[in-house]
Write a structure and sequence with these properties.
Length: 359
């Protein structure tokens, strides 16, 4: 076995050991809309007050990286903070962002990188709670190409599956290509969605490789009967350090229009504290205890396996809800390399996030 093969197989063994046999959760990583759409309907106001109404859009509610958003509601933390939170599952980060920009929601539970993308479009969005320390992504080789694709360089001319063009998964591919001295066009990308469609695309060899998240990786592993070959994996601190040269890469967060935050500081503070309290609950409880608090349908009929996946997830979540300077710089670097709409534009990171509400 060559050094590369050993390295990649080793990475395959670094994946969470949980094999998710029957949990089928819908996943989606997210891209930003090209421009602000028209309003998609009226929304309730979300001014600061003991009964403040907040419409919170989630970019895929069953996606494990967004678990704190739902768990806070199940634990009653929003209500205890004096909030009336309506969660809308918009089943995709770009849809959730579009709804918020258009005025249909007040706050989005989505990836922090959107705030950078939107600043590049002169649309001020600010994140105010960091839920995830890692994007949770891994680049896997399709079964048909095991032994053929051994490095990023071998992706030249290949078709890589992503959740959707312009998504975080797409940005990951483009970043890795650039980091290895390649052009963004050296590999093509195809939308394979997430959940069962992503697993099927890999299992049936519809793509040569794919960027995937949990629980899809565990489902695929079960289906093919062995650990898949993984070229890059940022689900671990080791992987984050190797790929992004950082210990933190902010992903799932709560963000809102900057002017909304300015006008609703009391409400934003209550939301932030409810999520921070939830993160502390996650850190101090087992996966089994957390799974017991989540909606039954999220477990896909196998709560034991769901609990094990949550236990693995805990390692990628923030403990205090705060962004780090190294983390946001790492996300900006990814966008500068992978996203031509950001490129060399003068991005003021201090305008894309704040820790004032979680201190």
């Amino acid at each position: 076995m060559t050094q590369n093969e050993t390295r990649h197989r080793r990475r395959g063994l670094l994946r969470p050991l949980t094999v998710l046999a029957s949990v089928a959760l819908a996943l989606s990583a997210c891209g930003a809309p090209s421009a602000a759409p028209p309003s998609q309907g009226g929304t309730a106001g979300a001014g600061g007050g003991d009964s403040a109404k907040v419409i919170l859009g989630v970019g895929g509610q069953t996606l494990l990286t967004y678990l704190p958003t739902t768990l806070a509601q199940e634990l009653g933390y929003y209500k205890e903070a004096g909030l009336n939170v309506e969660i809308q599952d918009l089943q995709g980060g770009s849809k959730a962002l579009t709804a918020m920009v258009g005025g249909s929601t007040n706050v989005t539970s989505g990836y922090y990188e959107h705030t950078i993308q939107m600043q590049a479009k002169n649309q001020p969005i600010k994140a105010f709670v960091d839920m995830g320390r890692s994007s949770g992504l891994a680049l896997l080789v399709a079964p048909k190409n095991e032994g053929k694709i051994k490095s990023i360089a071998d992706l030249k001319g290949k078709n890589v599956g992503v959740t959707a063009p312009g998504s975080s998964t797409d940005m990951f591919v483009k970043f890795l290509l650039a980091k290895n001295g390649m052009q963004p066009t050296d590999a093509s990308v195809s939308a394979i969605g997430a959940g069962s469609s992503a697993v099927a695309a890999m299992e049936q060899n519809q793509v040569d490789a794919a960027v995937m998240l949990e629980p899809d990786i565990s489902v695929l592993t079960k289906r093919i009967g062995h650990d898949p070959v993984i070229l890059e994996d940022v689900r671990t601190e080791e992987g984050l350090k190797e790929v992004f040269d950082t210990d933190s890469w902010p992903s799932a967060s709560l963000y809102a229009k900057t002017d909304w935050l300015e006008q609703n500081k009391d409400t934003a503070g209550k939301l932030a504290k409810a999520i921070k309290r939830t993160l502390e609950f996650i850190d101090s409880h087992s996966g089994e205890e957390i799974a017991a608090k989540m909606p039954e349908k999220f477990a896909g009929g196998d709560k034991e396996q769901y609990a094990k996946v949550i236990e693995d997830l805990k390692k990628t979540l923030s403990k205090d809800g705060q962004f780090t300077q190294d983390g946001v710089k790492a996300v900006l670097k990814t966008q500068q390399v992978a996203n031509p709409e950001v490129g060399n534009k003068d991005i003021k990171l201090e305008d894309t996030y704040t820790n004032e509400f979680v201190k």
